[in-house]
Amino acid sequence: MNKSVNAAATAATVAGLALAATLSPLGSRSASPNSAVSSSAGSPQYGWTTTTAPTQTMVLAFPFQGGHQRVIDRGPQGLGAGDLILSTGQPILDNASGQRVGTGDAVELIVSKRHDGTVVSRSTLRLPGGHVDIDGVVRHTDSPFRVSVTGGTGIYLGTGGQLTLIKEDPARKVVIMKLELVR
Q1: What pTM was computed for the model?
Q2: Cβ distance 174 to 92 under 8 Å?
Q3: Per-residue pLDDT of the chain (183 residues; tens, 9 = 90+)
Q4: N or C, fewer C-beta in 10 Å, the chain?
Q5: Class of residue 166 by CB neighbours under 10 A (exposed 0-12, middle 13-18, buried 19+)
């Protein structure tokens, strides 16, 4: 696991996902923006039904720098199991315009170095009109790399969905993620 902690990543798995995304080197890892499961997907074989729930999609960028972050090293020196990563005020940008659209706060607990880092992540994206809450266990080797939206406040009340890593863009120094919200 990379010993340097990227502030954007934490914002993202703050984004819970991207949130932990840069604790390990992502290299050229990416997921197609179209690879996320749509709200109309279903499988009669397993008793699932097809629905057409209203969906809102946002492509967001989480800068490597910004906000405030603290790493609490609770085990042997260096990042490892038991360590906490706390972040507040991580910038969230609209990927297309580069304009700041919100901030993210997150708490991550490193569970294991396996899978290039496995973390429990709880995050809040503070967006116009309310908050989006993200929660889950993230393995950095998952492909696609995604985490669950577990709820929200304001205009996001009653929302579910997922946050999916699209790619890390070292040239722009951001992690790009797709936020899909379903009611």
Answers
A1: 0.73
A2: no
A3: 443 333 334 333 443 344 334 333 323 333 433 333 333 444 445 555 445 567 899 999 999 999 999 999 987 888 889 999 999 999 999 999 999 999 999 999 999 888 878 899 999 999 999 999 999 998 888 888 899 999 999 999 999 999 999 999 999 999 999 999 998
A4: C
A5: buried
Q: Report which residue type is found at 88.
A: T
Q: Are 72 and 82 spatial neighbours (Cβ–Cβ below 8 Å)?
A: no
Q: Are 163 and 177 in contact (CB under 8 A)?
A: yes
Chain position carrying tokens 């009669």? 44
- Chain centre distance of CA 44: 30
